[in-house]
Amino acid sequence: MKALAGLVARDLRIAWAQGGAVLPLVFYLLVATLLPFAIGPDKILLARIGGGLLLTAALLAALLPVERLVAPDLASGMIDQCVVRGIGEEAIGVAKLIAHWIAFGPPLMIATLPAAALLGLDGSTVARLELGLALATPGLAALAVATAALTAGLRGAGALSGLVMLPLAIPLLIFGAGALGDGGVGATKLLAATSLLLVAGAPFVAGAALRAGRT
Amino acid sequence: MSWPARLVLHDLACLRGERLLFEGIELALAPGDSALVTGPNGAGKSSLLRIIAGLLAPAAGRIERDGSLALAAEAAALDAERPLRAALGFWARLDGASEAALDEAMTAMGLEALAEVPVGWLSTGQRKRAVLARTIASGADIWLLDEPGNGLDAGALERLGAAMAAHLAGGGILVAASHQPIGLVPTCELRL
Asked: Which sequence ranges are marked TM in the entry (chain A) (predicted)?
């Protein structure tokens, strides 16, 4: 447990120091800023599609630091040293998941407030969007960590990560978007279930990938 | 060291891809014993250490081990942008080593003047010394040293020799892989 906390703290420090934590935030706000320019200042249209677009932006934002999550630690021997100390690959996956979520989930939820204002979303939509993000971001972080472990050490890992991760994120998008509409309780529950499944599965995928990739 | 450390290899074999690197490796080490693994480049010295460390699965054979492990491998596993003392401190905390033990290990490797220097600025030899300092500070029963003499100058080699002697005198076990003399008089030599 202490080892896990140490690993999470280290990942967070690196995310902060190398800009990995700021990049998704800037990207997210940039999308929200650019969108009205692209589709015009139609307030009703923006309010209708804004929530879904912010969800998509959150998904892409989670993908941004994927190359920095696992690959550098694999190359520097960090993960080997953890394993020699008896810290399992799955535990490393859990630590990376927690750290990645803390680094991008809550900041994104805070950034949603100005982003929603830019898109003219009403109060109830913002509340549902925040709830949706709270449920979806752990799942996105889990997907990102599993993808990072699967593609670590490969050439062109960045492009490949998108291809691996985005199809798997579709359920999160569908239920997330569904939860934004009126009477989206069912979709919200399904969103939570999908996210939970990803969070529960990702450490095992990441662990198996780290073991299989070891030379 | 709560129990007598022990490291026994039975009929160990290593397969990398289609190539059989070695087979039939037998080794039994008790407290205070050391083994020097020698052999040409690519003979499987590092692979043997990684198998003992549990990072690779052997193609055949088994390993019996009592006691904690420390691996000093080619990859430093130190965060490049952090000061050396802090980067080593991260591992010392994971190992449950005290600050004093870490300071002592850094002094033993002659690193006290580099404590505040970022790891990325260190030379090859200095980084190697840092890895050895981490191994010393870990307080592990069994040391696995992969080419510990690489990049070390004469003074550092002497420090390495002293550290290894102290570890063995304290009832530790040591397996070193090296193609150059490192100032170790091993209990047994393993030629791959």
From this structure: 21-39, 45-66, 97-119, 131-150, 157-178, 190-210
Does A6 contact B at CB distance below 8 Å? yes
In chain A, how many domains are there?
A: 1
Nearest to A83 among B54, B80, B91 (CB): B54
B46-96 pLDDT per residue, tens? 999 999 999 999 999 999 999 999 999 989 999 989 999 999 999 999 998
AA identity, residue B85:
R
Of residues A2, A80, A214, nearest to B77 (C-beta): A80
A-chain residues near B56 (CB < 8 A) = 214
Please give the domain boundaries of chain B with CATH numbers for all domains. 29-55+66-191 (3.40.50.300)
pTM for this structure?
0.91
Q: Which domain holds residue A197?
A: 2-214
Is the pLDDT score of B44 beyond 80? yes
> If residue B107 lies in a helix (H) or strand (E), which one and from where to where?
helix B99-108
Pure H helices in chain A? 2-17, 22-39, 43-63, 66-69, 71-76, 78-84, 89-119, 123-151, 157-168, 170-180, 185-212
Q: Tell me which residue in B71, B80, B90 faces A84 most closely, judged by beta carbons.
A: B71
Picking from B16, B69, B93, B94 by the largest number of A CB atoms within 10 A of its own CB, the best residue to mutate is B94
ipTM of the complex: 0.91
Distance (Å) of CA B73 to CA A84, B68, B95, B173:
11, 16, 17, 17
* Chain B residue with Cα closest to A5: B94
Q: Which DSSP helix (H) or strand (E) runs through B71?
A: strand B69-72
At B184 the three-state DSSP class reads: coil
Residues of chain A with pLDDT under 70: none
